[in-house]
Amino acid sequence: MRTDHEPAGITVVLMRAYQRLLQALALVLPFPQPRKLIGAGALRTLPPLMRGRRWRRPLLVTNRQLLQLQLPQPLLQKLEGAGRPCQVFDQVPDNPTIACVEAGLQAYRAGRCDSLVAVGGGSVIDCAKAIGARAANPWLSCRAMDGLFRVVLPPPPLACVPTTAGSGSEASIAAVLTDQERQRKLAMADLKLLPAITVIDPELMLGLPPAITAAGGLDALTHAVEAYIGRSGTPFSNRRALEAISAIARWLPRAHAHGDDLEARLQMALAAHAAGEAFTRTNVGYAHALAHALGCFYAIPHGLANALVLPSVLRFSRPACEPKLAALARAAGLGTSQDSDPMLARDFIRWVEALNQQLGVPPFIASLRSVDIPRISADALQEAHPSYPVPRWMRRSDCEALLTQLLADGASPSDAWFQSIPPAEADSPPEE
Fold it and tell me: 304 exposed, middle or buried (CB, 10 Å; 0-12, 13-18, 19+)?
């Protein structure tokens, strides 16, 4: 018996047609290009640029940890000295919520602000985007703007200052929030959410704890991988995804082992940005859908959740995308010119697993409970279908089996288990 989130044959055809339409739009839509300030000390050039653009009363969005570390202090002092005092909102949690956005909106209004500056990781940047969307469209709730192109009026100008190399949110059209009441993720996606200014300053990332470096880098890896193996790639997104993979393979282990390496920090920040530019034009895949569902259930940080499920998702997807996985392997510097695509595809998945292990990611999900697997699977597939241009459709039974293999008391994922799933055509309808 088919369940709600297992697409029938005609549904597969309609979903692929919808995805091809989105792919065509990505080729012709005028993606705004932010002004980019790149390099060590780039943050110091932001206040004069804001002054030149007449941003008079910005709201600085950050979190309490960064404020305690005084990371935004130099920027706040320069803006104060330039006669542009900032209202500060520092209540952004690891997974931003609708309630957090509403609190930020109140701070924006209380300060009579006209612009926003986000200093932080992907959660902070996503929250700032959503605050801006609500400020410009007060009659629309976050839920009403969930989906594609539902932000009616353009938000106030936004400057993004990422302090981690991972989310790529400063390069994406999306803002992902947690709807705690409904226990699910929602995502606004609109060209209007792209920032006006992006600051990539590796000095802000020096000394990040290894675990945060790992989670961010593996989040960027997942963005690049899913952007490339999905069916909606464009010449631009494919090029940027391959560039990101090549840089991550070279620089992530170094940034993880040597947190004070300025060059490694810069290259990882640029890789995360490239991956963000790739996936914002193509969308993501099942790894992200599962990561979002796991984040809602267990509050697992998004980058770590992506890393936990990515190898399993790639093993499932491999029959439908071996040539693309082989291309990713070559970008990562794996294999030789004589190696076949099947061999390179297998090597790439094993490299992802080895990278996880090197960076301290376990091969299972410690908090995962078997009783939650049906609901997590349903939520993930509901998110993925119809928008995510995955290379191979996943049935509910496939998703549940994948998660079962990631239970802490279960066996680690293996080639043998995934080979037990018939290598069906990517668009074949699920069995009744």
Answer: buried
Strand partners, 42: none
As a whole number of angstroms, the distance between CA 431 and CA 295 comes to: 30
Q: Give me the tens of pLDDT residue by residue for the chain, a chain 432 residues long.
A: 344 444 556 677 777 777 787 777 777 777 888 999 999 999 999 999 998 898 999 999 999 988 888 888 888 888 887 777 788 999 998 889 999 999 999 999 999 999 999 999 999 999 999 999 999 999 999 999 999 899 999 999 999 999 999 899 999 999 999 888 887 889 999 999 999 999 999 999 998 899 999 999 999 999 999 999 999 999 999 999 999 999 999 999 999 999 999 999 999 999 999 999 999 999 999 999 999 999 989 989 889 999 999 999 999 999 999 999 999 999 999 988 889 999 999 999 999 999 999 999 999 999 999 999 999 999 999 999 888 999 998 999 999 999 999 998 754 444 433 343 344 333 443 332
- 198 and 255 in a single domain? The answer is no
CATH classification at residue 262: 1.20.1090.10
Residues 6+ apart with CB under 8 A from 354: none
Rounded to 5 degrees, what are φ and ψ at 10?
-65, -35
- Residues 368, 278, single domain; the answer is yes
Residue 432 belongs to some domain of the structure: no
Q: Give the DSSP H/E element, type plus range, for residue 116.
A: strand 115-120
Burial class from Cβ neighbours inside 10 Å (0-12, 13-18, 19+) for residue 384 reads buried
Q: How many angstroms separate the CA atoms of 63 and 91, rounded?
A: 6
- Buried residues in 268-298 as b, exposed as e (16+ CB within 10 A): bbbbbbbbbbbbbbbbbbbbbbbbbbbbbbe
Residues 6+ apart with CB under 8 A from 337: none
pTM for this structure?
Answer: 0.89
Answer whether residue 60 is part of any domain.
yes
- Omega before 386 cis (within 30°)? yes
